[in-house]
């Protein structure tokens, strides 16, 4: 039994030695590949990037730290390919070594999108009156500059500009202007915006219109690299009567500091100048904007451009700019002059040498505000007793260097109505006739008068202003055939009671009177029905009656 145990122990030891000898001689046959995927610019790890290993088409995705790993790979050359959204796919060759894990880090570059073009509008309808409309070309890509040109424009229109370049995130305005003298019938055409082999159509339509011509010169207003003030000229070419115009709200354009005047009226053949002033502070690149002028049925764009100069131009700022309105009671105002990026000698004057407003100083010097912090105040004072009418206008003109700065001035006072220049003729010596007032009410004129019966006895069927026998006309030669008239307690001027003794009042209202009318003449028929009184004349006349606000 003892011998058997010794044999068993010896056998077990021999087997163990044999096993150890075999393990030391075993050779590994597999390897691995691992790595980190990152952004080539920032170095940050890319999560959820897809990693594909070939041959074998094995795949995995990176973790939050950008790490990936493949195990138990056959030895030899393999291709590691990595892709991620928004990045350019990349790959590497790596050797799998038995018993080892080979490192393969890959950095991905971001995709670069090509510049893209978009139009603000693909059609322009000029109707029968419009002569100028615009659209914009927008670069909606994230890199690159779009070069474009306009093609296929017919001879009855002009397009400005015909070509250009638009940077990323910017837009370029294109103005299409019709030559309506060439449009004898309804027209349509398609122009093309062409860039990099792509073509974007813009459909143009226009109807043959009426003889209406309103011009703006220039329609492209350039301030270059140093100008701060430019002017445009508005002109009523062919429209008969008075044409009202106004500048649309431009407050969103922060670098356009003032446009003056903002509105007005033009007779046929008349022109008006509008001054545009810009503020170059904060402008760091070439920029442009559009202001719009309304004139009758037209809305005409004016493209305003400003070039950038790295060296700031010395200039003088006036505040407030635009206009100072003293109203009915304000008697003084202070204007502040401020020099930027240089020093100036200046002069100041009042346009037209008005007597109703005065200026405390007419010359001086301005130090650079950026270095000195100093400004120059000018005080304006108003004396309404020296105003010749109810409204007075002038302007403060400041000259400094090459700049001419203009601030419009306006003041009002209560208007004294004087009708002594009018001629009043009664129909009879026994009827006393007076003008009470003649005033504007919007676009209408309201004329108030009185009649006093001094010796005709009570009249029961008195009539005044019968249509067909009465005439009303203005100083511009316009005759009015429609009006409303009242006398005493009657609402149409016919068959009113006209008692002897008391002053009896009446009113005439005329609608749609042109704004430039200064005087009106009323020739009013009078009579008594049913065998009433006989007058020495057949009408009452109010000639050249002034119209007041």
Query: Mind telling me which CATH architecture of the largest domain this is?
Result: Sandwich
Q: Which word captures the global form?
A: elongated
Describe the main β-sheet briefly: 7 strands, antiparallel
Content of β-strand: over 45%
* Oligomerization: single chain
- Rounded average pLDDT: 87
Helix/strand class = mainly beta
Number of helices: 2
Number of domains: 4
Total number of beta strands: 46
- Low-confidence region ranges: 12-24
Helicity level, as a percent range?
A: under 10%
Distance between the termini: 144 Å
The CATH class name of the largest domain reads Mainly Beta
CATH topology of the largest domain: Immunoglobulin-like
Supply the CATH superfamily name of the largest domain.
Immunoglobulins
Radius of gyration: 44 Å
Q: Could you please describe the fold and organization of this structure?
A:
The protein is mainly beta and 549 residues long. It folds into four domains: 31-108, Immunoglobulin-like, CATH 2.60.40.1120; 117-306, Sandwich (Immunoglobulin-like), CATH 2.60.40.10; 315-412, Immunoglobulins (Immunoglobulin-like), CATH 2.60.40; 423-546, Conserved domain protein (Immunoglobulin-like, Sandwich), CATH 2.60.40. Helices cover 5% and strands 52% of the residues. It has two helices and 46 strands. Strands 36, 39, 40, 41, 43, 45 and 46 form a seven-stranded antiparallel sheet that branches.
Question: What's the helix and strand layout?
Answer:
Elements: H1 2-24, E1 31-39, E2 50-54, E3 58-61, E4 67-73, E5 76-83, E6 90-96, E7 101-103, E8 106-108, E9 117-119, E10 123-125, E11 132-139, E12 146-151, E13 157-160, E14 163-166, E15 171-178, E16 187-195, E17 198-206, E18 214-217, E19 220-222, E20 229-236, E21 243-247, E22 256-260, E23 263-266, E24 271-278, E25 287-295, E26 298-306, E27 315-319, E28 322-325, E29 332-340, E30 344-350, E31 357-359, E32 363-366, H2 369-372, E33 376-382, E34 391-400, E35 403-412, E36 423-425, E37 431-441, E38 444-453, E39 459-464, E40 471-474, E41 479-480, E42 484-487, E43 496-498, E44 503-510, E45 519-528, E46 539-546
Parallel strand pairs: 1-7, 1-8, 10-17, 19-26, 28-35
Antiparallel strand pairs: 1-4, 2-3, 2-5, 5-6, 9-11, 11-15, 12-14, 12-16, 13-15, 16-17, 18-20, 20-24, 21-23, 21-25, 22-24, 25-26, 27-29, 29-33, 30-32, 30-34, 31-33, 34-35, 36-46, 37-38, 38-44, 39-43, 39-45, 40-41, 40-45, 42-44, 45-46
